[in-house]
């Protein structure tokens, strides 16, 4: 507040306090709702937003990764006019708090279904910047270039695949697989951003990316991608096994050369993106076992199906940006199909969960325990299918955010231990304990 | 950007195209290769700017027309009693978005091809320039060490 007053004195703009008070008042009124959304959003941020247009990372999932810069999530919802006098508002407190405020305002705008003028950019953003590489900023820039949060999510799905494999846990293999996957994911994300600079500039969610802002040159982005991707794939091929390396390389190719261009050509990109997201857990499994078992495919299938409710729900709110940016997404061109597919795959998740014990990956407790959450997401999918409005799409999207980690967690706790399989009947109630033993490295 | 600066400067996003303009620094001892790079970047920037400015303007215009026609069909005015601009909800706008996207698809396909060509060319030239500079620096270092 003090800072703000100082700025007022300096700028001498009199209309700012009124506008600020107005915005603050609006923000306060919606504080409670926003707290909830902000919590989810923050959670989302740590889980990496999936960029609708960006299909978060090929590795993890084009659809999956909500790993996108979460703070942009609501910005795309409404066209917000910028007013320059409001920019001092954003100097209050830290950048994140101003972003939260901005998010709140944007949510307010959405809820009121009207466009309120909001200073969308800080003053710093409107200045001319020297295009010289700042070395101290470099880690942050590279983190954003590689969509580090999304990468983290991808690596966690890989770890889930590794953990579910019916073999004794090997720490070195696990670490190598995770590191290799992470590097490959960074590479793929960087190339994706390299390809999409003018489109990212035009979409609210992505306009603050490093290449868009000129913080890094395209050459450096490509070099960074190569220096992540080549060691990453080499690590997977030589340090883990060739199958995992091949899958990693294939996934990078699928994401950068198939998904990214396809986004602007046909709605088939969503399905390609779902495959991109499904491959990391398969990689985790093959890293552990060295072969493509039915279990790997099942895990991949679960992630493949999950992508659809997640992405389709998210893309529902981005239709304007997609339309203007020229992205061919189901939510824009085939809205009915969009909702049908989302619902279909929610139901498929139930089916896939039931198949897991049949393939001896989990015990029969898994389909039983996972049924409530699968039914819930299917219910939200059905609501989305029927209502086709913003609130149902948001509910489905936010549900998908916690549904996947929870499903994977339940799957892991219901994992059929290797020991139990070997001496059947010797450990009647010990499946959980033995599973625990194997889990601990 | 200050006159004495020896690097490129990038500015805030353009109002129409949302792209950030770059002012390129022309060094006095610019080589032919560096000049080709700079010209390629300038050409790409101009072409991008043209495309997006025109495209976004068309979008805004068509959106206004759509809203106007829909409101008229409903018997409403562009501005309601309080003077606020009337808007349609997302579901009604969906028809417009679908229409706009399909109308512009071909334009986008062409632009994609052009953009990818520009991007690859610029990056490749950047690579060449960087390589030449690195070699030059190594030669200079070797000369200094010899002395």
Automatic annotation (TrEMBL), chain A:
Cellular component GO terms held in the UniProt record: mitochondrial membrane
Lineage: superkingdom: Eukaryota
Documented EC number(s): 2.5.1.141
Membrane disposition: Multi-pass membrane protein
Pfam families, alphabetized: UbiA
Keyword Transmembrane: yes
Catalytic class of the enzyme: transferase
Localization in the cell: Mitochondrion membrane
Keywords tagged on the record: Heme biosynthesis, Membrane, Mitochondrion, Transferase, Transit peptide, Transmembrane, Transmembrane helix
Residue stretches spanning the membrane: 243-262, 269-288, 364-384, 396-413
Single Gene Ontology MF annotation: protoheme IX farnesyltransferase activity
Catalytic activity: heme b + (2E,6E)-farnesyl diphosphate + H2O = Fe(II)-heme o + diphosphate
First-listed, main subcellular location of the protein, grouped into a coarse class: mitochondrion
Biological process, per Gene Ontology: cytochrome complex assembly; heme A biosynthetic process
Stored InterPro entries: Protohaem_IX_farnesylTrfase (IPR006369), Protohaem_IX_farnesylTrfase_mt (IPR016315), UbiA_prenyltransferase (IPR000537), UbiA_prenylTrfase_CS (IPR030470), UbiA_sf (IPR044878)
Alphabetized Gene3D superfamilies for the sequence: UbiA prenyltransferase
Similarity comment: family membership: Belongs to the UbiA prenyltransferase family.
NCBIfam families xref list: cyoE_ctaB
Designated name of the protein: Protoheme IX farnesyltransferase, mitochondrial
Species of provenance: Rhadina sibilatrix
UniProtKB/TrEMBL annotation, chain B:
Compartment list: Mitochondrion inner membrane
GO terms for cellular component: mitochondrial inner membrane
Membrane topology reported for the UniProt record: Peripheral membrane protein
Keyword ATP-binding among record annotations: no
UniProt keywords, alphabetically: Membrane, Mitochondrion, Mitochondrion inner membrane, Transit peptide
Presence of keyword Mitochondrion: yes
Broad class of the protein's primary localization: mitochondrion
A GO biological-process term: intrinsic apoptotic signaling pathway
Stated family: Belongs to the COA8 family.
Protein name in UniProt: APOP1 protein
UniProt lineage: Eukaryota, Metazoa, Chordata, Craniata, Vertebrata
């Amino acid at each position: 507040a003090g800072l703000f007053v100082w700025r007022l004195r300096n700028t001498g703009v009199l209309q700012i306090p009124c506008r600020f008070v107005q915005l603050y008042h609006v923000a306060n009124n919606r504080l409670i709702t926003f707290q909830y959304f902000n919590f989810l959003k923050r959670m989302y941020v740590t889980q990496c937003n999936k960029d609708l247009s960006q299909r978060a990372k090929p590795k993890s999932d084009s659809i999956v990764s909500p790993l996108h810069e979460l703070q942009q999530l609501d910005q795309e919802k409404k066209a917000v006019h910028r007013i320059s006098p409001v920019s001092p508002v954003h100097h209050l407190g830290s950048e994140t708090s101003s972003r939260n405020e901005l998010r709140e305002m944007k949510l307010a705008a959405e809820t009121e279904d009207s466009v309120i003028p909001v200073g969308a950019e800080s003053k710093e953003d409107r200045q001319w910047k020297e295009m010289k590489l700042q070395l101290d900023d470099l880690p942050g820039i590279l983190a954003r270039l590689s969509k580090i949060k999304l990468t983290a999510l991808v690596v966690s799905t890989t770890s889930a695949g590794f953990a579910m494999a019916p073999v004794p846990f090997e720490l070195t293999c696990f670490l190598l697989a995770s590191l290799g996957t992470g590097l490959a994911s960074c590479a793929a994300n960087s190339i994706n951003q390299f390809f999409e600079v003018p489109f990212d500039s035009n979409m609210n969610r992505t306009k603050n990316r490093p290449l868009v802002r000129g913080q890094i040159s395209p050459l450096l982005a490509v070099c960074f991608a190569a220096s992540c991707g080549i060691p990453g794939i080499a690590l997977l091929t030589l340090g883990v096994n060739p199958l995992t390396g091949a899958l990693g390389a294939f996934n990078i190719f699928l994401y950068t050369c198939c998904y990214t261009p396809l986004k602007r050509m046909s709605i088939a990109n969503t399905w390609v993106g779902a495959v991109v997201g499904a491959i990391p857990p398969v990689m985790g499994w093959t890293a552990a076992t060295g072969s493509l078992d039915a279990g790997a495919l099942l895990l991949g299938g679960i992630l493949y199906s999950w992508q659809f409710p997640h992405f389709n729900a998210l893309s529902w709110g981005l239709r304007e940006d997609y339309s203007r940016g020229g992205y061919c997404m189901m939510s824009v061109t085939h809205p009915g199909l969009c909702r049908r597919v989302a619902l279909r795959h929610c139901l498929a998740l139930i089916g896939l969960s039931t198949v897991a014990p049949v393939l001896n990956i989990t015990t029969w407790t898994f389909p039983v325990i996972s049924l409530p959450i699968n039914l819930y997401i299917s219910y939200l999918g059905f609501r989305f299918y029927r209502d086709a409005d913003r609130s149902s799409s948001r509910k489905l999207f936010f549900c998908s955010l916690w549904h996947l980690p929870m499903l994977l967690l339940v799957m892991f706790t219901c994992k059929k231990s290797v020991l139990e399989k070997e001496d059947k009947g010797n450990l009647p109630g010990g499946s959980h304990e033995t599973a625990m033993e194997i889990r601990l490295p | 950007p200050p006159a004495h600066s020896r690097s490129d400067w990038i500015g805030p996003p353009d109002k129409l195209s949302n792209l950030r303009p770059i002012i390129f620094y022309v060094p006095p001892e610019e080589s032919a290769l560096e000049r080709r790079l700079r010209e390629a970047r300038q050409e790409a920037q101009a072409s991008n700017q043209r495309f997006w400015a025109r495209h976004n303007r068309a979008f805004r215009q068509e959106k206004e027309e759509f809203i106007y026609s829909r409101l008229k069909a409903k018997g409403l005015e562009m501005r309601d009693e309080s003077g606020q601009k009337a808007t349609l909800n997302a579901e009604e706008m969906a028809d417009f978005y679908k229409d706009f996207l399909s109308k512009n698809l071909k334009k986008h396909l062409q632009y994609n091809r052009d953009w990818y060509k520009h991007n690859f060319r610029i990056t490749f030239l950047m690579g060449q320039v960087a390589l030449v500079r690195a070699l030059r620096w190594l030669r200079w270092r070797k000369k200094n060490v010899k002395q």
